[in-house]
Write a structure and sequence with these properties.
Pfam families: DctP. Keywords: Signal. It comes from Metabacillus bambusae. The protein is α/β, with parallel strands linked by helices. Helix content is 41%, strand content 19%. The chain has helices at 4-16, 40-56, 74-83, 115-122, 128-131, 176-184, 197-203, 214-217, 244-249, 252-287, 298-303, 305-312, 318-325; strands at 22-23, 29-35, 61-66, 88-92, 139-145, 150-154, 169-172, 188-191, 208-211, 227-234, 238-243, 291-294. The strands form two sheets. Strands 1, 2, 3, 4, 5 and 11 form a six-stranded mixed beta sheet that branches. A six-stranded mixed beta sheet has the order 8-7-9-6-10-12, covered by helices on one side. A hairpin with a 5-residue loop joins strand 1 (22-23) and strand 2. Helix 2 (40-56) packs antiparallel against helix 10. The longest helix is centred in the last third of the chain and has 36 residues, at 252-287.
């Protein structure tokens, strides 16, 4: 019965809300914001977005939330936003790859030199073309949220060099770039929904996974995977997306408020994210007994170089790739 209810809700929303936002008894606009499971700092940032939007529009526009997979996983939420059944959602940049190939560049391992480089790129005009690449599909990007670095964590022993991944079954997101990355590192990539990872690690279906520190604590993976290795292969941002028709129906001042609230919620999230990551790592060590280790990243970078060569010479990506690389601090 638990699996039937979300499907019914999705069906009802698709019919009832297809025309976009609704209005409440005060005649204010109510935007429906649905999201899947998330770490607390991202949840706080999404709540901040709604608060800011209400303030900036003097209550003309408010936000109603459908949290924690109530209306489905990230793929379903993108599709609901695409049709207008949902007005806004927040998903991983990797989940958007199948809607716009441009988002695949975020999954390129070691694209960003460090956090500073990541922020410099994501706060620049370079991402505008990526956000707008889904406009013809019915939705556009508003802003990003930091989702941290992604590293490998294992059930049996830590990863110290690429050869430690040989033959190991590693959970990855539904991303062709992530699949190719693990293959180049010698592992066996296993695309899987996030909700299945814990049991798969526990039962030995998976040898490991790759994610940020919150997967260890929030999802409880630290109970079955005790070795977290900081190879820091990717920094895939979360993306806040909005139905294009809904956005266009707003007045010019309301649209401006949407973009301002989105940008300011990103600044807010950067602060709470850093604080929460340190707390998550401490909890992982003290409560779950997880062992964290640093690795020499150079062998990993060399192993995935073919992916960089592919993007550097790929039609539609060459200039974007070069522009991102040229924003490194040492350039």
């Amino acid at each position: 019965m638990k699996k039937i209810i979300p499907i019914i809700l999705i069906g009802l929303l698709s019919v009832i809300l297809f025309t976009g936002y609704s209005k409440n008894e005060n005649d204010s606009i109510v935007l429906r914001f649905a999201y899947a499971s998330n770490s607390q700092p991202v949840k706080d940032a999404m709540a901040e977005f709604g608060k800011l939007l209400t303030e900036k529009t003097n209550g003309e526009v408010t936000v109603e939330y459908f949290p924690d997979n109530q209306l489905g996983g990230e793929r379903e939420l993108i599709e609901l936003t695409q049709t207008g059944a949902v007005d806004i959602t927040k998903v991983s940049g990797s989940a958007l790859e199948s809607f716009s190939e441009k988002y695949s560049i975020f999954g390129l391992p070691y694209l960003f030199e460090d956090e500073t480089h990541f922020y410099k790129v994501m706060d620049s005009e370079l991402v505008k073309s990526i956000y707008e690449s889904t406009e013809s599909l019915g939705f556009v990007g508003l802003t990003y949220y930091d989702s941290g670095q992604r590293s490998f964590y294992m059930t049996e022993k830590p990863i110290e060099k690429p050869s430690d991944l040989n033959g190991k079954k590693i959970r990855v997101m539904q991303s062709q770039t992530a699949i190719k990355m693990v293959q180049l590192l010698g592992g066996s990539p296993t695309p899987m929904d996030s909700g299945e990872v814990y049991t798969s690690l526990q039962q030995g279906i998976l040898d490991g996974a790759e994610n940020n520190e919150f997967a260890i604590t929030e999802a409880g993976h630290g109970e079955v995977a005790k070795y977290y290795s900081y190879d820091e292969h990717t920094r895939v941002p979360d993306i806040l997306v909005m139905n294009k028709e809904t956005l266009d129906k707003l007045t010019e001042s309301q649209r401006q408020a949407v973009y301002e609230a989105a940008k300011e919620s990103t600044a807010f999230e950067k602060v709470v994210w850093k604080e929460a990551v340190e707390q998550a790592k401490e909890r992982a060590e003290n409560e779950f007994g997880v062992i964290f280790n640093e690795v020499d990243k150079k062998p990993f970078q060399e192993a995935v170089q073919p992916l960089h060569d592919e993007f550097a010479n790929k039609d539609g990506f060459k200039q974007l790739y070069e522009d991102i690389i040229n924003l490194k601090e040492n350039k």
